[in-house]
Amino acid sequence: MPLRSVPRPFHLFHLFRGLLVCLVALLAAGCSSAETAGGTAGETGRGTATAAASAPGWADGMGTVRQAELPAEARRTLALIDAGGPFPYAKDGSVFGNFERELPRRERGHYHEYTVRTPGERDRGARRIVTGRDGEVYYTDDHYNSFRAVLR
């Protein structure tokens, strides 16, 4: 019994459908990873990784925030750090121990912390900038429970 050949349009239809399914899957995967890694413009929520494609190696795997998206008080603290002070709090510039292990492990003395003023707080509040010896800059607004790498 001879095999009946399937008409040519049938093969083309399935080939086209298969290519279309692959294309949609690739587009969907690309869009979802871009949303997860990049966030949306202006998004500054905790743990959001904005501009992950341009993040330096030391920020690999952690949330990021652009310097321009930081609160005004954090940007002022960064300006003071860049200028070398003077700092308003006695503990500014002190060694940050990284006891919470939220930042990459480095030798003692690698990290230094600076207070970011919190309006309405009578004490130092929970916000800090932590810098690393190799130019790393991190921001926390929950007293070291989580950090975001600052993209400058």
Description:
- By secondary structure, the protein is an alpha+beta fold.
- 28% of the residues lie in helices and 15% in strands.
- The protein is built from two helices and six strands; from the N terminus they run H-E-H-E-E-E-E-E.
- A six-stranded mixed beta sheet has the order 1-6-5-4-3-2, covered by helices on one side.
- A hairpin with a 7-residue loop joins strand 5 and strand 6 (148-151).
- The radius of gyration is 25 Å and the shape is globular.
- Mean pLDDT is 78; it is low at 22-51.
Summary tags:
alpha+beta, six-stranded mixed β-sheet, 2 helices, 6 strands
Brief write-up:
By secondary structure, this protein is α+β, with helices and mostly antiparallel strands.
Radius of gyration (Å) = 25 Å
Number of helices: 2
Across the major sheet, the strand order is: 1-6-5-4-3-2
Largest sheet: 6 strands, mixed
pLDDT < 50 stretches: 22-51
Count the strands? Answer: 6
Overall structural class, as computed from helix and strand content, comes to: alpha+beta
Estimate the global geometry from the Cα principal axes: globular
Report strand %. Answer: 15-25%
Helix content: 25-40%
Mean pLDDT: 78
Helix and strand sequence: HEHEEEEE
Taking the alpha carbons of the first and last residues, their distance comes to: 74 Å
